[in-house]
Amino acid sequence: MSLIHLLRAVSLGSAVFCLVSLVFLLVRTNALGRKEHFSAPRGSAGRGIVYAFSQGMMPWEKESASGHLPTFIGGILYHASIFIAFLYLFWVNLAPASIRPLWIFRIALFLGAAAGLALIVKRAVKPHLRRLSCPDDYFANLFVDFYLVISLCHTYLPRSEPLLLLSAIALFIYIPLGKIRHCFFFFYTRILFGIFFGRRGVYPCSAPKA
Amino acid sequence: MEAVPEKKDALEVKLETLSEADLQKILKELERRLSADEAAFVQSCVRCGLCADSCHYYLANGELEDLPAYKLNLVLKVIKRHFTAGGKIAPGWTGARKLDRDLVRQWVDTLFGRCSGCGRCTINCTSGINIAAMIRMARGALAAADLVPPELQSTVMTAVNHGNSMGISRQEWLDTAAWIEEELQAETHDRNARIPIDAKGAKFLYTVNPREPKFFPLSLLAAAKVFHAAGASWTFSSDYYDVTNYGLFSGDDARAGMLSDRLYQAMADLDAAVLVLGECGHGFNANRWEAPQWLQKRPPFPVKSVLEIVAAFVSQGKIRLNPACNQEPVTLHDPCNLVRHGGVIEEQRFLLKRAVADFREMQPNRQKNYCCGGGGGQLSMTRYAKRRLKAGRIKADQIRKTGAKIVAAPCHNCIDQLSELSREYKLDLEVKTVVEVVASALVLEPPAQP
């Protein structure tokens, strides 16, 4: 087995470790006990969850998005590009010869890395945001940015694959340990948001507009 | 002449003498309340700070301490440090912090003094973290160590000890009801018009904010007029008629549950069918949504806002309204606990559009409306009054832009705050409940001939 094959296997193994760890965290979180709802619902929890992942994420539904459109768009690009980078990694691992079309990956990774850097600059420059932040906030962002840049470089320079795989291994190990675990808990929290406001008939509103 | 020593603030004394046992009480209560939901929230906050502009405190003051994510992270950092592996191993890295006296002081000042629990940050949170619930949870932990600002705590204890948060005696309540009954008979020209007290088997048990019998009896009269005109079967309880529940604000689930359970008990004693909650935002949230959680039981009867009941009277043709009776422009304030936390969003609009000639919406409105600043127990915590009035500027600006001089607010805490804002910001407003506006548009049928 060559070094590159070994690294590919380890990177896949670290991805599995990451996933298993996140599931473990989720199970441990659930072990604290889910709340049983005793009040009679006014709306539907199911519809609330659908809202939370659809309309509720649109910028016109939230001032935090509509009032900060560049940050909102930057955040979407950044997070989308991370998933695209992982897709690229698995493609490299499983069928490297078939990666097509590369330009899509290049654009996505470039935009994602640029957005990530912009977000970290914002965090460092805005006084209130800086005081709110902890070291993990900077490190996690920089780490992911680094990984996006390495992925982007790899699209031009296939020989850099060991670096790509090593950074992927490190990232997958770090994800469940640090702040990046929010990638999993984000969905959990959105579901809770949907249940809370859905049951109460707040989102979506259970009555037609008067 | 000998100088009289100034009496020290009880909360300040408590903070100065905080013991390790007190800190442990706070942590123990925090741990007890930590369910999967809160644990997920701990992992979800990325400190993006995008919630900032959603908070009326932050908009008015612009201080870091007013930023919802800052308030939330005051709580999260303690949970991380004491209850998560990452926070125990690398507290500095993850922003975790051990609970100490200094932090408790910050908790009290920030979580009680800079938050009305309006939940506007929750709907604006990128992840959807229920920030208001987390802050209430921390308030509850402070309550376990007797660290609730005394003014708020005394309101809770007045309700616990006297059956209502204003300390109104039973006789005073009955006298007020009798007086209102006379007024009702005069207004309706009907000698048979009644304010029923303890009427067994009535359909509706109506509960009110005790500020109504104490300071706003015309609110009671308005509701009685509407019930009378609709020919409804309704009653007050002579003992437990208080819809308010300041335990929601202090975070004390045990006492909050006790207060709500009294209403449940009154329902059972009077064999009423529907518990009707008067125009009180937090009272609605407390008794409709939170009480079943505090009591861990499903109420065996529907719990409705009076707005839902009156809207049904109108849509069923039981009462008729004449909007020409209210010619002045009227705007509507959406109480956070009734609307954003309660789901009663359209009924008040349905009513006002039929009761007034010129109805004007504030912008933004409904779920996105700004808090007036009177929620979260702020009105009772006089020590934070300056902040409350300053934060209310956002609401004052909203109202001013509508051009309306009458504000309908289905919540007595909001009414108090809006009245103060009117004086503070020279808005020259008249603030009414929605039912008062409806009652003034009622088309009264002549009483049936015997």
Overall description:
- The complex is a heterodimer of chains A (210) and B (450).
- Chain A has nine helices and no strands.
- Chain A has 210 residues and is mostly helical.
- Chain A has a single domain, classed as Up-down Bundle (Fumarate Reductase Cytochrome B subunit).
- Chain A has helices at residues 3-30, 45-53, 63-66, 69-94, 102-125, 127-132, 135-156, 161-174, 182-199.
- Chain B has 450 residues and is mainly alpha-helical.
- Chain B contains 23 helices and eight strands.
- Chain B has helices at 10-16, 20-33, 36-44, 56-61, 68-83, 85-89, 91-94, 101-112, 120-124, 131-144, 150-162, 170-188, 211-214, 217-230, 247-250, 253-270, 281-295, 306-315, 347-355, 385-391, 393-402, 412-424, 434-440, and strands at residues 204-207, 234-235, 274-277, 303-305, 329-332, 358-360, 406-408, 430-432.
- In chain B, helix 19 links the parallel strand 5 and strand 6.
- The chains are: A mainly alpha (210), B mainly alpha (450).
- At the A-B interface, helix 1, helix 3, helix 4, helix 6 and helix 7 of A face helix 3, helix 5, helix 7, helix 9 and helix 17 of B.
Please sum up the structure shown.
The complex is a heterodimer of chains A (210) and B (450). By secondary structure, chain A is an all-alpha fold. Chain A has helices at 3-30, 45-53, 63-66, 69-94, 102-125, 127-132, 135-156, 161-174, 182-199.
